[in-house]
Every structure is written in structure tokens, then in C-alpha cells.
Write a structure and sequence with these properties.
Order of helices and strands: EEHEEEHEEHHEEEHH
Strand content: 15-25%
Number of strands: 10
Largest sheet: 10 strands, antiparallel
Helix content: 10-25%
CATH superfamily: Dynein light chain 2a, cytoplasmic
CATH topology: Beta-Lactamase
CATH architecture: 2-Layer Sandwich
Distance between the termini: 122 Å
Shape: globular
């Protein structure tokens, strides 16, 4: 689902979407933008659970306009969305010159590392249109739900693609923010604390330029967060050799009591004398 670019005019538009779906105000897009917000809110709320970020508080789209949506939740999990849409000054996307031929997996890995250089970014990943995580970096404790997080971010980016086509989406949770940026049909997905919009946007522009001529769907590898989590195993177990330890045999307890007096190790019996006939 794509929402056409709203006509925010010179001042902008403000509107509210209530839990029952009614809209107060004009979204500037004939109701299409207002209709998309509950859908994106439900997708985003589950992402907060996956990344231990808490509840969704603010949804932002940064592109030709800045869309800012504050979210509050009822006990039943229904959201109220208070949206503000403002036109931004036209931005000139810088031109980058990519020198040298680099294979696609290496280019993707470089872009993930480049995103990690932004202050506040905790982890970063690239997710294909087929919901495959082909590269990731950051704290591995946070990377186990990347496939589902990436899949949900892809759906959110598609539903509001006209709002962030030249920028990015940011979902503010109680404990951090998930940032998504379109790479054609694919996406760059990161988790961050406080970051600079200008620095983040500059890196996203660079990543898009580097990956523009690469077919990300052709990358054969798929990120496995479990691969580096296992500790080295014992050499014997690694080669299928297990040491079998038999329990020690305990000596029998000594016999006690009058009837067992003198019992213990017996002396050899003396041979009996044979008497002649």
C-alpha cells in the first residue's frame, strides 16, 4: 500500500486518528495517510517487543516532508495517532563516485560497518525484499530477531514510501529507535539511541550510492546470529570422543558387633595332618 504525497501547503496539516478509526482534521491525502497509520502502528509495536525497546511513542518519516506522529495506547492495545506534516526545504542529494569494482557481499558488509560509525547506532543490518538478512553488525545479543524486525520494517516502508523516498523512517520506542531506509526494494535497518539527523542522512545517501548498481537479492549468504555465539567445545567432544568415567568401587564397610569379632581378612588355612593307617 502506497500513500500519495499529501499537499501540506505552506504551513502543513495536523490530524488525529482515534482508536475507532475516525479521523479529526484533514491529512491532505484524501484519507489515505490517516488510514495507513493504524496499520503501521500495529507493525511497529511488535517491533518494540522484539528489540526490547518498549512501546512505540513516536513515528517519524523524513523526506520531502517531515511526518511526526505521536502515539498513545489503550489497555486493549488500540492506538491514538496525533500527526503533524510539514514541508521541508528541497534537499540536493550529493553525488558519490564509487571507485573500483567490489563484489556485492563486500559492498554490503562495508555499508553495514559504515552505518555503525554513526554515533548512537547499536546495530545495523541489510534486509532484502524477500525478508532475508544478508549482513548485520553490532551487539549479537540484539540480533536474534532481525528477520522479523526487517520484515516488519519493509512493510512499513512500503506503506509510507512516498513520505521517506529520499530520507528514512524512524520509530521511537521507550528505550531506543529503529531506523529504516529504502534501498530500492530492499532496506537498511538499524537500531539506535540519540543520533544526528544530518549525520544519519549523509550515511544513508552514501550507502544508497554504493549499493545502487548491486543486486542485493543475489547475495547468497544469510546472516546467522547463532553462528558466533557458540563457545569453543572441548577437543575430545569436538571429534566425537567422550571420556567415560566409571564410579570408583568403595570398600565394604567393616563388620562390627560381637558375632563378627576378629572378622576380616582370613589367614590361609593350615593343611590337615594325615595319620597313618
Amino acid at each position: 500500500m502506497s500513500v500519495e504525497q499529501p499537499d501540506a501547503g505552506g504551513v502543513g496539516v495536523d490530524f488525529v486518528v482515534r482508536p475507532d478509526g475516525t479521523v479529526v482534521g484533514d491529512d491532505g491525502a484524501s484519507g489515505a495517510l490517516a488510514a495507513a497509520l493504524p496499520y503501521t502502528g500495529r507493525l511497529a509495536r511488535r517491533m518494540g517487543e522484539l528489540v526490547d525497546g518498549g512501546d512505540l511513542r513516536v513515528l517519524e518519516a523524513y523526506g520531502g516532508h517531515r511526518l511526526s506522529v505521536g502515539v498513545t495506547w489503550t489497555p486493549a492495545g488500540e492506538g491514538t495517532y496525533r500527526a503533524s506534516l510539514r514541508r521541508l526545504e528541497p534537499r540536493v542529494v550529493p553525488t558519490f563516485m564509487v571507485v573500483g569494482a567490489v563484489d556485492t557481499p563486500s559492498a554490503v558488509a562495508h555499508c553495514v560497518d559504515r552505518t555503525m560509525s554513526v554515533d548512537g547506532v547499536r546495530w545495523s543490518s541489510v534486509v532484502t525484499a524477500g525478508s532475508r538478512v544478508i549482513a548485520a553488525a553490532g551487539d549479537r545479543c540484539d540480533l536474534h530477531h532481525l528477520a522479523e524486525v526487517g520484515n516488519r520494517m519493509l512493510a512499513i516502508l512500503r506503506s509510507l514510501e512516498d513520505q521517506h523516498a529520499t530520507g528514512f523512517m524512524r520509530l521511537h520506542f521507550e528505550q531506543g529507535a529503529v531506523v529504516g531506509a529504502s534501498l530500492g526494494r530492499h532496506a537498511l535497518v538499524t537500531y539506535a539511541g540519540v543520533t544526528s539527523d544530518d549525520e544519519l542522512l549523509a550515511v544513508i545517501d552514501e550507502v544508497r550510492a554504493i549499493l545502487a548498481d548491486h543486486d542485493l537479492s543475489a547475495v547468497p549468504t544469510e546472516f546467522d546470529p547463532e553462528a558466533a555465539d557458540h563457545d569453543p567445545v572441548d577437543e575430545g567432544v569436538q571429534h566425537g570422543v567422550e571420556e567415560v568415567v566409571e564410579p570408583a568401587r568403595h570398600a565394604s564397610p567393616p563388620l562390627v558387633g560381637a558375632r563378627f569379632a576378629g572378622a576380616g581378612q582370613r589367614e590361609p588355612r593350615r593343611p590337615r595332618r594325615r595319620f597313618g593307617r
